[in-house]
Amino acid sequence: MKKHLQNFIIALVAVLTLGVISPSHEIWTTLQPKDDTREADLPTSSKHDLRLGLEDSIFESEPFEQPLSIEEALFQPAKELAYLKFGSKIGPVIEDEFEEIIFPKIEEVIQRTVASTESFGNSMLSITEYPSGDYAEKMFHVSDKVLDKDLIRFHVRTEKRPQDGYFYNFHYHTAEDGFTVHHSLGDIYWSKNTPPKWLS
Q1: What is the distance between the alpha carbons of residues 154 and 170, in angstroms, rounded to a whole number?
Q2: Could you report the per-residue pLDDT of 59-87, keeping only the tens digit for each?
Q3: CA-CA distance, 98 to 93, in Å (whole number)?
Q4: Which of 20, 39, 88, 129 has the fewest C-beta atoms lying within 10 Å of its C-beta?
């Protein structure tokens, strides 16, 4: 019965505090009978031993940061934002063509940008911007965090072509031309029916 009461108290504390506060383990040592052998099996350690363990050289050394690869820092977030924009209605329909045709071209453009910014020295590129919904074009931007400016803006536009139906036109704009020129990445056919809104 005591074991059931102990489990009930643990569950009650966890539920009432939403797991933020855990019950002190000293409570359970006072509830255990004197002849309980579970505690005897545990190795004895003092607070001094624990403190020494936390002051090892690992904690005193400089934090080591492994630089992210271009895949982790740029390609993966770019793909995630693209699929976030497509939503659950558009994404599954255009996924294959996007993976085979469009995204390799996006990777190529990003790699060219990374290569060109490395010649300028210490620049940090990142994927920014939440994709826009409704029928707006914005997918994501590649920005230089040091200069705090966009370098490339990747967009997708819904186009209605007479007799043919609806297409998604993937393109990008660059800072070099003031974001005015459309650099085409390719088109993906939707259907003759009006496509759903982005993010839906």
Answers
A1: 8
A2: 444 554 556 677 777 889 999 999 999 99
A3: 10
A4: 20
| 157, β-bridge pairs | 169
The SS3 call for residue 44 is coil
Find where tokens 């993937």 sit: 170
Radius of gyration of the chain (CA): 28
Output DSSP code: residue 176.
G
pLDDT tens-digit map of 112-122: 888 887 655 55
Q: Sort residue 107 into left (φ over 0), alpha (ψ -120 to 50) or beta.
A: alpha
Flag whether the pTM goes above 0.90: no
Q: Which amino acid is at 80?
A: E
